[in-house]
Write a structure and sequence with these properties.
Order of helices and strands: EEHHEEEHEHEE
Strand order of the largest sheet: 1-2-3-4-5-6-8-7
Distance between the termini: 20 Å
Number of helices: 4
Structural class: alpha+beta
Largest sheet: 8 strands, mixed
Number of strands: 8
Length: 184
């Protein structure tokens, strides 16, 4: 958890854990989402249950997951205006001699095609190595998620394999493409 409270910056983004004072920017990011663009984009969400109290519990959950070295979740904010443009996270798969993690990323669809995803992933891979001490990072991507595949490739992750029946979603066990990068 040593580095979990750290804020990282790119040319246009600030990448850091969510804070209570981010609530309105976070909520606005979700409320301004466009309708779903494809099956891997949840589009508009009903945010009525996401009160300030709910959001504070979300932050506490993120902090607990980081304390336990399970998941490190970060908000993506535009540096110049503070808008919440998405999230990026690392899940610890195995530590010990492996130091192996998985990256997940989501950009609100109203911010697509601006390069924020690639900018965030490149920076996140840097601190995943230097601060979170991961050696290997994988991205587990649905075989038909072209946008995520392009992002992984553009950030320097390499295709390794297809894991059959790897994750249960959409009511069935689905195949995932595995993209990876060795960091250290």
């Amino acid at each position: 958890m040593k580095y979990y409270d750290t804020s990282y910056e790119t040319e246009r983004l600030r990448i850091r854990p969510l804070k209570v004072e981010d609530y309105l920017a976070w909520l606005t990011g979700y409320n301004n989402r466009l309708p779903s663009q494809h099956r891997h984009d949840e589009g508009n969400r009903d945010m009525n249950e996401c009160s300030m109290e709910w959001y504070v519990r979300l932050i506490q959950q993120h902090q607990e997951l980081a304390r336990n070295d399970e998941v490190y979740a970060y908000g993506l904010f535009l540096k110049d205006e503070g808008s919440h443009v998405g999230m990026i996270d690392f899940m610890t798969l195995v530590r010990s001699e492996f130091q192996w993690g998985c990256i997940g990323y989501m950009i609100h669809n109203q911010y697509w095609r601006n390069g924020y995803g690639k900018e965030a992933v490149l920076k996140a891979l840097d601190f995943a190595s230097s601060d979170l001490n991961f050696h290997r990072i994988e991205a587990h991507i649905n075989v038909d998620n072209e946008a995520s595949i392009r992002l992984a490739q553009s950030a320097g992750l390499e295709y390794e394999c297809t894991r059959k029946g790897f994750i249960f979603e959409f009511g069935e066990w689905t195949d995932n493409l595995i993209y990876y990068k060795n960091l250290i």
